[in-house]
Structures are given as structure tokens and as C-alpha cells.
Write a structure and sequence with these properties.
Layout lengths: L2 H44 L18 H16 L10 H15 L2 H11 E13 L14 E13 H4 L15 H13 L4 H10 L8
Antiparallel strand pairs: 1-2
Helix pairs in contact: 1-2, 2-4, 3-4, 6-7
Length: 212
């Protein structure tokens, strides 16, 4: 093996080590998140808390301790295998969504799979008017010294809250919860979603977008 080959092998080994360390860090963060969320869930059950209390009006039920443990294992498997689109939700948010869906879906596995399918992203584009630097050459041809800067931000969430289309087989043929849909629409607009698109989505669901 020549010197060049030896140096390339060293570089490859370093890259592999860096990748392994990054994977270990992500796994440690995931384990910590799962442990903290499971502890919070168990504490809530001890106090008699209910997941339906945080469901924003949607009919649901709290998970038992056993169900919470099983869901944590499902969530960890999803997260480690890249089953979520883009940035994964926290376990707490995922469990809350599953609690909202479990009565409708009939089982933990079906509710978890539907919640996973609902998770996604939306891009929000904003334009901001900014002032040019006093010494900018552009001031020679731009009298007011202002310009527009456009930026795009990716927001992650469950599609019902993002104002996007429902996930495949996500309760098709069932009457939507009007109060929850309006609440989700308001939340989506607050996050930066296009109000007209959100209203259109509500109309497609058979809901008049009152108060938006």
C-alpha cells in the first residue's frame, strides 16, 4: 500500500468514526427523550391525568402505562429507522396525537401508524422589507434604499395542524370534528400557513371557515 492509499484509508476511517459518533449522539438524545417522556406520562397517570384533556376537543382517551411503554418502543423504532418525514416529533407530542386517535382507530398500533402518516412538513415563505447599508452601491440606483428579502422556513407538525391534506386512509368518509378543525386551522395560520389555503382546505372538508 502506497503513501497515498494509506492517507486515504486514514481519512476514510476518520469519516467513519465521525459518522459513528454522530449516530451515537443522536441515539443518546433519542433515549433521553423517550425516558423523559415516559416518566412524564407515568407521573400524569399517577395523578389521574387524561390524554383527552389535551386533545383540543377531539374525542380520545388516555393511554395506560402499558400502552405508553409500548408506544415508546414503537416511536423509538420509527425514529431510528427514519419513518417520520424530516424532523421527528417529540414522543410527548406523538403520544398526545395517538391519544386523540386511539378510540377512532380501535388499537394502539393503528393509531400510532396513522399519527406517523399524518406527520409532515410545510414550507412558509415570507418577504421582509429591509434597508440597504448607507454605503451600498445599490443606493445609486435605488432611491429609497430599501429592498425585499425572501426567506423560506420549513415547519413540521401533524398535517391537521399544518393545514395540509390528510394522510392516506386517515379517517376517510368520517365526519370531521368542526371545532377541532377550526382550532387546527387557527393554529396553522398562527404558524404562518396561507390563510386562504387553510380556508380552502376547511371548505373541502365541508366546514365553513367562520372566525378566520
Amino acid at each position: 500500500m502506497g503513501l497515498g492509499d494509506g492517507l486515504m484509508k486514514v481519512a476514510d476511517d476518520r469519516r467513519k468514526l465521525a459518522d459513528d459518533l454522530l449516530k451515537m449522539e443522536k441515539k443518546a438524545e433519542l433515549d433521553k427523550d423517550v425516558a423523559e417522556s415516559r416518566a412524564a406520562s407515568k407521573a400524569r397517570h399517577r395523578k389521574g391525568g387524561s390524554g383527552s384533556g389535551s386533545s383540543g376537543g377531539r374525542s380520545g382517551r388516555a393511554l395506560s402505562n402499558t400502552e405508553s411503554d409500548n408506544l415508546a418502543r414503537l416511536y423509538k423504532d420509527y425514529a431510528e429507522n427514519g419513518a417520520f418525514e424530516g424532523e421527528a416529533p417529540g414522543l410527548g407530542a406523538f403520544e398526545t396525537r395517538v391519544e386523540q386517535l386511539i378510540k377512532e382507530e380501535g388499537s394502539l398500533a393503528k393509531a400510532a401508524e396513522r399519527a406517523r402518516g399524518e406527520w409532515g412538513s410545510t414550507e412558509v415563505t415570507t418577504t421582509e422589507l429591509k434597508e440597504r447599508h448607507p454605503l451600498s452601491p445599490a443606493r445609486l440606483w435605488d432611491d429609497d434604499g430599501k429592498y425585499e428579502e425572501t426567506s423560506t422556513q420549513t415547519n413540521y407538525g401533524f398535517r391537521s395542524a399544518l393545514g395540509g391534506p390528510p394522510a392516506p386512509d386517515a379517517g376517510q368518509g368520517q365526519k370531521p370534528d368542526t371545532s377541532q378543525a377550526i382550532a387546527d386551522a387557527k393554529d396553522a395560520i398562527a404558524r404562518g400557513a396561507d390563510p386562504e389555503k387553510v380556508k380552502q382546505r376547511l371548505r373541502e372538508m365541508g366546514i365553513e371557515p367562520k372566525g378566520l
